[in-house]
TrEMBL record:
InterPro entries assigned: DUF4010, MgtC/SapB/SrpB/YhiD_fam, MgtC_SapB_SrpB_YhiD_N
Organism of derivation: Methanocella paludicola (strain DSM 17711 / JCM 13418 / NBRC 101707 / SANAE)
Designated name of the protein: Uncharacterized protein
Membrane-spanning ranges: 6-25, 46-77, 89-122, 134-155, 170-188, 226-254, 260-279, 299-317, 323-347, 359-378, 384-406
Topology term for the membrane: Multi-pass membrane protein
Lineage of the organism: Archaea, Methanobacteriati, Methanobacteriota, Stenosarchaea group, Methanomicrobia
Subcellular location per the Swiss-Prot or TrEMBL entry: Cell membrane
GO cellular component terms given for this protein: plasma membrane
Length: 407
């Protein structure tokens, strides 16, 4: 038996039993053969076999857990009923939750128990999502998985160029980001219709507001009826960008807040009111969406991002301290978040003062807004272009005036 105090042993008994009951609660509610007591016993068995007996006993108990799960499934099949494969798998995992508690891996054990219970409880929601999936959507999900979970992790996470500015993983992260925004946009619009675009605009803007514009341009080319909703989404992405940059300052450099709260606050209020004006129009729009995301568009955007990083580095090397603002503009055109983080890092290093850091963040945010104008122009939709310029322009003018007065 492991060298445990009575208190530690009692704690592990109680926690493993509680976690087993927690998982079994859902199965009991769903009227399955295995319920609260069975799951609690499986978790408790895993814990006790680990704490009291040698390792080979734990292996034997694991084999028993597998055998029991198989027997349950076979019994269900023989009775021409649901074989309860999900319940059997949950029992097996619950055994190892107890094992984790037994070896003092408390946090992983609790996390796994919560995940298992969540998966068991959302059967209806998962079925409703998968029921309407097309082959193209499944293929797109696989492609996105390759982008995010196969290619991204194997890329080097360090600069590979002589100047130390090209990080392959950072560049590829942008590609994954664009694809992810496309996925979110596709799902929300499919589920909630054109009004769901507002959610995509805001939450996509928290990640990269320029990417939201690129995504909605593709949508309105396919369905011009979405134009005004797309305008609201683009303006909301600018609002979200301001919220995100202000949040970064709150977390990383609170000393910047007195100089940035008013400019960003004014921009957020004006942008929100402008977007609400269009969202309040109860338009009936038939949404035609064909693909969850475009890998081609994501790769093109990643290439543009690479070019901007190189230009920004060149500006700093060429112009010295003045290159800070040039770099802020160029970085802001692609990602104002990266420009904000750079300004904060320079402030914390003592390279620039609070005022210059705040101005750099404002400049980067303005550049992020301005870069949307040519993108909107090349959408070949004059109504979209005019309204985006008008809404974003009002935000910029208010922000610039406030910055001049208070920074």
């Amino acid at each position: 038996m492991a060298d445990l105090t009575l208190y530690d042993f009692a704690f592990r008994i109680g926690l493993s039993t509680a976690l087993g009951m927690f998982i079994g609660l859902e199965r009991e509610w769903a009227h399955k053969e295995a319920g609260i007591r069975t799951f609690a016993l499986f978790s408790l068995t895993g814990m006790v076999s680990t704490v009291i007996f040698p390792p080979y006993v734990t292996i034997a108990c694991a084999v028993f857990a597998i055998a029991f799960a198989i027997i349950m499934s076979a019994y269900g099949i023989s009775q021409k009923r649901d074989p309860n494969l999900t319940t059997s798998a949950a029992l097996f995992i619950t055994f190892f939750v107890g094992v984790l508690i037994g070896i003092d891996q408390i946090i992983p054990g609790v996390i796994i128990a919560i995940i298992v219970t969540a998966l068991l409880s959302i059967k209806t929601e998962l079925q409703s999502i998968t029921a309407d999936l097309t082959a193209a959507e499944v293929h797109a999900a696989v492609e996105f998985g390759i982008l995010a979970f196969v290619i991204y992790p194997i890329l080097p996470d360090h600069p590979i160029d002589p100047w130390g500015v090209i990080n392959p993983r950072t560049i590829w992260l942008m590609v994954v980001l664009i694809s992810g925004i496309g996925f979110v946009n596709y799902y929300i619009m499919k589920r909630y219709g054109s009004k769901g675009a507002a959610y995509t605009g805001f939450f996509g803007g928290l990640a990269n507001s320029t990417a939201v514009v690129a995504e909605f341009i593709n949508r309105i080319k396919a369905e011009p009826g979405l134009t005004m909703v797309a305008v609201a989404a683009v303006i909301l992405s600018d609002v979200a960008m301001c919220v995100r940059n202000l949040g970064l300052c709150l977390i990383l450099a609170p000393s910047l807040l007195p100089k940035l709260v008013l400019p960003f606050g004014i921009m957020i209020v004006i942008g929100g009111l402008f977007a609400y004006r269009y969202l309040s129009r109860q338009e009936t729009v038939t949404v035609k969406i064909h693909s969850p995301f475009s890998i081609r568009n994501a790769l093109v955007f990643g290439t543009i991002f690479l070019g901007m990083v190189m230009l920004s580095a060149f500006a700093v090397f060429e112009f010295g301290s003045a290159g800070f603002f040039v770099s802020s503009v160029l970085s802001g055109m692609v990602s104002s978040a990266s420009a904000t983080a750079s300004s904060i890092a320079l402030l914390q290093a003592g390279t620039i003062d609070t005022r210059m850091s705040a101005l750099g963040i404002i400049v980067a945010s303005m550049a992020s807004i301005v870069i949307k104008f040519p993108l909107a122009y090349f959408s070949n939709n004059r109504q979209f272009f005019f309204n985006v310029v008008m809404g974003a322009g009002l935000m910029m003018v208010a922000g610039i005036i406030t910055a001049i007065l208070f920074i």
